[in-house]
Automatic annotation (TrEMBL):
<dbReference type="InterPro" id="IPR029061">
    <property type="entry name" value="THDP-binding"/>
</dbReference>
<dbReference type="Pfam" id="PF02779">
    <property type="entry name" value="Transket_pyr"/>
</dbReference>
<feature type="domain" description="Transketolase-like pyrimidine-binding">
    <location>
        <begin position="1"/>
        <end position="170"/>
    </location>
</feature>
<dbReference type="InterPro" id="IPR009014">
    <property type="entry name" value="Transketo_C/PFOR_II"/>
</dbReference>
<dbReference type="InterPro" id="IPR005475">
    <property type="entry name" value="Transketolase-like_Pyr-bd"/>
</dbReference>
<dbReference type="InterPro" id="IPR051157">
    <property type="entry name" value="PDH/Transketolase"/>
</dbReference>
<protein>
    <submittedName>
        <fullName>Transketolase</fullName>
    </submittedName>
</protein>
Amino acid sequence: MRDAFLESTGRMLQKNPDSVVVLADIGVSQFREAGLFKYGGLSDEYSDRFINCGIREQLMIGVAAGLAKEGFRPLVHSYAPFLIERPYEQIKIDFAHLGLGGVFVSVGASFDASNSGRTHQAPGDVGLLKLIPDFEIHVPGHADEAAVLLDEAAAGDGRVYVRLSEDMNSTARPVEPGKFHVERQGSSGAPAVIAVGPMLDRVLEATEALDVTVLYATTVMPFDSWTLRDTGASEVVPVEPYLLGTSAAEVSGALHDRPHRLMSLGVRNMELRNYGTLEDHIEVHGLDAESLRDSISGFLAK
C-alpha cells in the first residue's frame, strides 16, 4: 500500500500545481527513494512542494492548515498515532473548525509496527476522527484499492483520511468511495457481516459455511446505511481492524426503525505489553479466521 501511496502522490503533484506534501520526518526516505523529494532538492521538480517539519507533529498539522487556508491542497503523512492522536487538537481546530480541507494518509494501522511497541500503534484513530465532523474515512484492504481511494482524495477538496496497512487481502475488489461492495449474497434477510478493509479474507474464510451476506467496506465514514438496509438483515456483525465497536452507532442508526441484534468484532480495548508479530496481535484480538468463525457462529446461534 505504501508503494501505491507514493505513486498516487506523484500523480497528485503532477496534476495539481497547488498540491503540497507536509511531513514530520516519517516518510522522507521513502519519498526520496521514489525520486519525488531530495534533501536539498535543487534538481528535483517537486522539491519546493515538500515540507519536512521534523519530529513536530503538531507543527506539521498547523503548517498544512495554513497552506490549505491559502488555497493549497495539503497531503499530510505519518504513522497513525503521530498523524491522528498526537496532533488531534490541531486537526480539530486548525482544519475542522476553520472548515479547511486536506488529505491525511497514515501507515502503521492498529499494530503493523508490532516490534516498535505501543508508541507506534493506534487502534483508536478511526474512532477519534469520527468525532470531528465532515471527515471521509477510507480503509482499503488492498494496494489497488488504496490507489483508487488516494487518487479520489487528492482530486477532491474535503477532509479525507486514508488508513493504509501492511495487512492486505489477496485480491482487490471493486471500489466505489462511500459504498459497500456486496461480496457474498445470503438468503433474503440473512444476517449481514460487514468486513472492513483487510478483514475481508479472514471473514470470508470464517463464514464460508454460514448463510450470511458479506458486505465489504473500504469507506466507513460516511457510513453506507442504504446498502446495509437493502440486505434486510436484522442481525449484523461489523468486523473492523481497529477498536471494537467503532461503527456500532452507525449500524444501529441505519437500522433505527427495525428490531436488530448487533455484535461488534475488532481490536479489543486492552493494553498489550508484549511485542510479538502482526499475526500474534491478530490472534490475541480474536481476528483470525478460526476465532471469527467461533464468535460469529456463537452469536448467530443464540
